[in-house]
Amino acid sequence: MLKNKTVIVTGAAKGIGRAIALRFAKEGCNIVLNYRSNVSDELIEEIKSYGVECLPFKADVSVYSEAETLIKESKKHFGSVDVLVNNAGITRDMLLMRMSEDEFDSVINTNLKGTFNTIRHVSSVMLKQKSGAIINLSSVVGLMGNVGQANYAASKAGVIGLTKSTARELAARGITCNAIAPGFIETDMTAVLKDDVKEAMLNTIPLKKFGQVEDIAEAAVFLAKNRYITGQVLNVDGGMVMN
Ligand code: NAP
Question: Which pTM value belongs to this model?
Answer without folding.
Answer: 0.98
